[in-house]
Amino acid sequence: RNEMFKNRLFLTGIVGTISAALCCFTPLLVKGVEATLEVGISPGLNMIFGSIGDTPETLGQAVDFLLKYDDCCEIRTIRPVTPYPGSPLYYDAIEKGLLAGPEDFYENKHLNADLLAVNFTELSDDEFYACLQDANRRLLENYHRHQRQASLDQVAELYQTRDTSFRGFRPV
Hints:
Helices cover 54% and strands 6% of the residues. It is mainly alpha-helical.
């Protein structure tokens, strides 16, 4: 049992950050996420969008995956991919003329982690942002719907059971 638990933690660790284009969600990945949730651990499910090959469809698959496995312990959003200097994606951006070098990256492109530094997709920047806005709206609505219901359940529990252990409303 202990070895199985360690394997589940390992699988959670390898989930890491996944590009929407890589949303193949292999059986091993799904099994790891499900096993992690079964033992009461919130998996770190981070998705990025805007890499080579990403499309509105792959973004939709990423959102569906996050919604399916969202335990609402934290706010989940999808951020644009960032080609950090030294990474293979950085060199792709330079080769494609999307970046001039590290100064261009740090001084002109990477100004906010939630905004595009480089758009590798076939979408215009406006189309890209519209897709990302819709995706994150769906994720945020899910989170806040869950939090609202949990708070209402907390109120009901307090007053219906006269819960003397209650010590104030807190995020659930």
